[in-house]
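Extended Data, record Thiamine-phosphate synthase
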Amino acid sequence: MSQPFPSCPARLGLYAVVDSVEWIERLLTAGVRTLQLRIKDRPAEEVEPAIQQAIALGHAYQARLFINDYWQLAIKHHAYGVHLGQEDLDVADLEAIRHAGLRLGLSTHDDREIDRALAFQPSYIALGHIFPTQTKAMPSAPQGLEQLTRHVARLGTMPTVAIGGISIERAPAVLACGVGSIAVVSAITQADDWRAATETLLALAGAGEDDDA
Ligand SMILES: Cc1ncc(COP(=O)(O)OP(=O)(O)O)c(N)n1
Ligand SMILES: Cc1nc(C(=O)O)sc1CCOP(=O)(O)O
Ligand SMILES: [Mg+2]
């Protein structure tokens, strides 16, 4: 890969990862500006309407909407960006994503995966999982805050996103590691009051810098 992917702000702020258009719309109206539609393991033709609607909403709110996994549909419907994991890297056409002008976020879980991710010159690097999570079965151990601090320092100006087990209570300590964004699923979707949880998380992490800042 000779060229870097398009840049995104160093600080993406609160990054909500959700599995439906309904959640995307709710969170946009609540002021979240970095989001991911993460629908797992469904046929592409089944998820295409949701992906198309989510992307249109993202544009309407001038938000950064990343599509997880379904990179062909993200290209087809002009998403802001795509999020891929290490296994996805083995099969996705990264040149097609870059050529279409989409941002690329990559998952990493250790130094070796960071080395691999850096070689692709992505728009951001996600660092996970920081704490135990109930949302996804993880083959590795949680990284904890010490590792997170080390990875963020190593990555320098590369935008970073922390993910995995980040609650409202843990968010301040995660942000104190210098990471530019906290990605959350259950802290919002499983909250007794999602609106209040989102408001608190936005107050802690911000909505992210403007793209042209
Ligand atoms: C912001 C962010 N970080 C990590 C992930 C995990 O992506 P991946 O490893 O591809 O796993 P799945 O989400 O596809 O199960 C993510 N989605 N978002
Ligand atoms: C989807 C995902 N990816 C992770 C990684 O480490 O790559 S952790 C994770 C789940 C995050 O959910 P919650 O905020 O509920 O813990
Ligand atoms: Mg994936």
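Summary. The pocket of LCLJCK34 (ligand 1) is lined by residues 15, 17, 36, 38, 40, 68-69, 83-85, 88, 105, 107, 126, 128, 136, 161, 163, 183 (CB under 6 Å).
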